[in-house]
């Protein structure tokens, strides 16, 4: 799969679930939204398009390099109702105001105490405002006898996250997190992201992006990963197996803070 095709593939798989989650939760035009741990701004910009010019989305993150990517993407796409700031969950500017909705994707898994993080955001939420989060979970990472290299590559990813202190079961824990934060839960959902010979796969790309972290964590070494041939080997395995691979289990949840 070439770089352009891979990018389109990843966007379709990631953004489809996120878009449906935001829309079903009730994100509307004119909303003012806070995007937690926005990274390079994918969710922020998606939300900005949903709320329209009368709305506003503020994304914040601690990674300045990622924020620069987000700002450039907003300019390229001519999105003027998205703003990006450097901040931590526990250190938002006092004048940031309140929001109709607080959203986040793949950020709670890296919080030492996800419930505390959600609670600390609630003072910035309007009464009856929405809280919407999306997280992945290693619950779908079972061994596939027909796709052993796929299984191994996915294990490298999740084992590295776990060794870094990430919660690899945050998806299935979202219900408890919201309950303990005092939110009224409207819905929790989960979907498996499936990959086949027809869809292609992003596994090699993810392993490549995480390679320094995988090696540093001691999860695997350069020789066993063989990154230069990994994509070719994965493609061959997928074509020969004619099997479905469970690439990810994605969880989404939304709730409200009552008066």
UniProtKB/TrEMBL annotation:
It comes from the Bacteria. Keywords: Methyltransferase, Transferase. GO terms for biological process: methylation. InterPro entries: Methyltranfer_dom, SAM-dependent_MTases_sf. The keyword Methyltransferase applies. The keyword Ribonucleoprotein does not apply. Pfam families: Methyltransf_31. GO terms for molecular function: methyltransferase activity. This is Methyltransferase domain-containing protein.
């Amino acid at each position: 799969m070439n770089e352009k095709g891979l990018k389109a593939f990843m966007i379709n798989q990631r953004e489809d679930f996120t878009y449906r989650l935001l829309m079903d939760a009730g994100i509307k035009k004119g909303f003012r939204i806070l995007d937690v741990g926005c990274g390079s701004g994918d969710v922020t910009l998606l939300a900005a398009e949903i709320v329209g010019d009368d709305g506003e989305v503020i994304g914040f993150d601690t990674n300045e390099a990622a924020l620069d990517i987000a700002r450039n993407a907003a300019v390229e796409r001519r999105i003027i109702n998205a703003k990006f700031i450097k901040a931590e969950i526990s250190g938002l500017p006092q004048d940031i105001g309140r929001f109709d909705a607080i959203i986040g994707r793949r950020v709670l898994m890296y919080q030492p105490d996800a419930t505390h993080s959600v609670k600390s955001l609630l003072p910035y939420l309007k009464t009856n405002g929405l809280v919407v989060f999306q997280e992945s979970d290693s619950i779908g990472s079972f061994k596939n006898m027909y796709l052993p290299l796929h299984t191994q590559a996915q294990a490298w990813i999740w084992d590295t996250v776990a060794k870094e202190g990430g919660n690899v079961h945050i998806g299935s824990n979202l219900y408890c997190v919201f309950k303990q934060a005092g939110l009224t839960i409207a819905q929790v959902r989960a979907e498996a992201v499936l990959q086949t010979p027809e869809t292609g796969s992003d596994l090699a790309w993810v392993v490549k992006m995480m390679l320094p972290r995988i090696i540093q964590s001691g999860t695997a070494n350069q020789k066993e990963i063989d990154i230069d041939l990994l994509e070719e080997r994965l493609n061959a395995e997928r074509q020969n197996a004619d099997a479905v691979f469970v690439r990810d289990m994605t969880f989404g949840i939304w709730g409200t803070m009552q008066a």
